[in-house]
Design goal:
Layout lengths: L1 E7 L1 H5 L3 H11 L2 E8 L3 H7 L9 H9 L3 E8 L2 H9 L12 H5 L8 E3 L3 H11 L19
Antiparallel strand pairs: 1-3, 1-4, 2-3
Bound molecules: inosine-5'-diphosphate (IDP) and magnesium ion.
Inosine-5'-diphosphate binds next to loops.
């Protein structure tokens, strides 16, 4: 079962889109195994986005993601990483397909509402960066056999 880290970024929280975002992942069939409301420290933000450390937008990205509270979720499911990325939509919201979160609610790359892990390995690593083991819940839903074959 894959894991992916989803973040409703500060713009999503400020715009009251937390429920809308959660609704879409729940509807997709992904299982929530962890969730918290927090304001990211610069240290955690820099670790999370370390791969972008040399990019010109890095400081602005860290400023943005730490500027206000976020909602962080760990989701589990078959094909969770790719399915979540598809539900989120392309990084540039003006290129994101209608029906995706970014395609429906965002316009600019620096205000693109949601983060989702980009590989199976990063899904595991990012979930572990944000959640202690005792903050993750191992459970199954009665509906799981109707979602996971
Ligand atoms: P992703 O969020 O779709 O995985 P990444 O390329 O990993 O996209 O970039 C991480 C985040 O950094 C983006 O979601 C966006 O918030 C920000 N970002 C990426 N490229 C740019 C840019 O060219 N200008 C400003 N912000 C950017
Ligand atoms: Mg990324």
């Amino acid at each position: 079962m894959e894991r992916t880290l989803i973040i409703v970024k500060p713009d999503g929280v400020q715009r009251g889109l937390v429920g809308e975002v959660i609704k879409r992942f729940e509807a997709r069939g992904l299982r929530i195994i962890g969730m918290k409301f927090m304001q990211m420290s610069r240290e955690l933000a820099m670790k999370h986005y370390a791969i972008h450390a040399e990019r010109p937008f890095f400081n602005a990205l860290v400023d943005y993601i730490t500027s206000a509270p976020v909602v962080v979720m760990a989701l589990e499911g078959t094909n969770a990483v790719a399915a979540a990325r598809q539900t989120i939509g392309a990084t540039k919201p003006h290129e994101a397909a209608a029906g995706t979160i970014r395609g429906d609610f965002a316009l600019e790359i620096g205000r693109n509402l949601v983060h989702g892990s980009d590989s199976v390995e990063n899904g595991i690593a990012e979930v572990n960066n944000f959640f202690a083991a005792d903050e993750l819940v191992s459970w199954s839903r009665n509906v799981d056999p109707w979602i996971f074959e």
